[in-house]
Amino acid sequence: MLNMKICSAGYVRRIAGFLGTCWENKEITMHQIFFFSPCHYMQRGIKEAMKIAPVSVQVLTVNSPEEILSAPQTDGNRIVLISAPAKNPAIASRASLFLWKLIRLKSTGQFLDISVLLLSDRVRGKYSRLSEHLSPERLSYALTMAVTQPGNALIFQPRQCHLSPLQQKILVASLAGLQVDEMAKVLNISQRGVFAGRNALLNKLGLRNRLELMGLMATDFI
C-alpha cells in the first residue's frame, strides 16, 4: 500500500488547492492527463468529469505515446490514463500495445516525469488502476488525487460507505496532517464544525479515534 506524504508546506498548499480554497500565495497550476481510449464516448466522459475538478486539469486524448512528446508541457504534473476494459478484449489489447510502446520510450529516458494509471476492472496487474464504473463525481475526485500526487496514484473503488462532501474534505485534510485550526481555515468553517464533521466521519467509518483515522489510506473506504 502506498503512503501519503504529509506535513510539508508544499503539500499542505496542494491539499488546499484540491479543496478548492485559494491561498494568498498559491499560483494557478495546470496539470495534464493524456487519455488513451478508442471510444469517443469515454473521451468525452473524461473531459466532462474533469470540468468539475477543483484544480485546473487539461485532458488530451492521444492515439500513441509519441503524441505526448509533441504536446506543449504545462507547469503542472502529468499522468497517462489508459482505458483497458476488462470485458472488451479488442480494446484491452490495443491498450496493452499502447502501454508497451510507452514503456519502451520510458526505458530510453523519456516520460520519466509521467505516472501511468489504468481505467480497468482487471484484478491483476503492475500499474495502479481505477474502476471502470465510477460516477463522474468520484472519477473526478480520483483523477484529481492522482494528478496532484505524481507517482502515488491512489485507487478509488466504489464502496458501500458513502461520505458527504464535507466528510471527504475532512478526510483528505486529516490524511494530509492538517490540524483542526488549519482545517477550519481551509474549509471556511468553525473549529467546532471541524470536530463535529470529524466525529461523524469516525462514526461512519467505524473508527474509535483520530489515530485510527490517520492509520488508514483513502483507498480503504472511498
UniProtKB/TrEMBL annotation:
Coiled coil regions in record: none
InterPro entries, sorted: Sig_transdc_resp-reg_C-effctor, Tscrpt_reg_LuxR_C, WH-like_DNA-bd_sf
GO BP of this protein: regulation of DNA-templated transcription
Origin superkingdom: Bacteria
SUPFAM superfamilies listed in its UniProt record: C-terminal effector domain of the bipartite response regulators (SSF46894)
Signal peptide (UniProt feature, chain positions): none
GO MF assignments: DNA binding
Domain HTH luxR-type: 160-217
Cited Pfam families: GerE
Entry keyword set: DNA-binding
Gene3D superfamilies assigned to the protein according to its UniProt record, in alphabetical order: Winged helix-like DNA-binding domain superfamily/Winged helix DNA-binding domain
Protein name stated in the entry: DNA-binding response regulator
Organism of derivation: Salmonella enterica subsp. enterica serovar Hull
Taxonomic lineage from the root: Bacteria, Pseudomonadati, Pseudomonadota, Gammaproteobacteria, Enterobacterales
